[in-house]
Write a structure and sequence with these properties.
The protein has one domain (13-82, 106-247). A two-stranded antiparallel ribbon has the order 1-2. The termini are close together. The chain is mainly α and 248 residues long. The chain has helices spanning 29-55, 57-79, 104-137, 146-168, 172-179, 187-202, 219-237; strands at residues 4-8, 243-247. 60% of the residues lie in helices and 4% in strands. Residues 1-24 are annotated as: Disordered. InterPro entries: GPI_biosynthesis_protein_Pig-F. Residues 1-18 have a biased composition (Polar residues). Pfam families: PIG-F.
Amino acid sequence: MASTTVVNANATSKTPPSSAAPIEPLHNDTARLYTHVHPILVLSLYAYKFTSLVADPVPTLLSTLAPLAVLQIAYVAACLPPTGGTPAIKKQKPGEKRGRVPGKLESGLNAKLVPAFLSLLLTTLAATPLLTATLVLFGAPVTTHHLHTLLCGAHIALLSTLPLVYVHGVTGETWRQAVALLLPIDEVYGALLGTVLGAWLGAVPIPLDWDREWQKWPVTIVTGAYIGYATGKLLGGTLLKGKKIMFE
């Protein structure tokens, strides 16, 4: 029977090595503080909305998307390096008129908020439909609950995909490594793995004959995704940081 283990990224393996390195959060006090506060805020938002979610899933999931997006944008902008890092400084040619130099605040906003909103756009337009289709393939209702499934996919996308797009961009090779479980674990990739695993485990209570309101689609899926996100982010940034998943 095949087994799954987690090993150090530098260990010798027959699996082709990943070219990506673990993502390091920004080295400033704001990043160090918010990276730990952020999952608490995300879980608090979900806990606050849980009763409403059980009673009426569609409007609750819809109304929670905006605050979740704000929290995710604040997290990536404050704590993570954008893809590509700092742009190279253009050398001025002899006789060339010097253009206006953007201020420190303007440079910071352009370097962080613009990639953050672009990541949100890509997550909305690409990741959400893909994850929604994946939910259907894994057993979501096909002929009913269409909005439920779409909004569930949107929440999973915001949790798992937005930070990964922000730090890795849309490089095909990096995303192939992510899907193949070849990337070294960090808090961003750990959050993605935790979200997906949590959503998958969240499906377990649905068919059980407990006759509970919270068992209806997709309450347990979204709950598992949120808990998995916080757990994966924590473990990816601490105990499992720099390790890789290996199949034997």
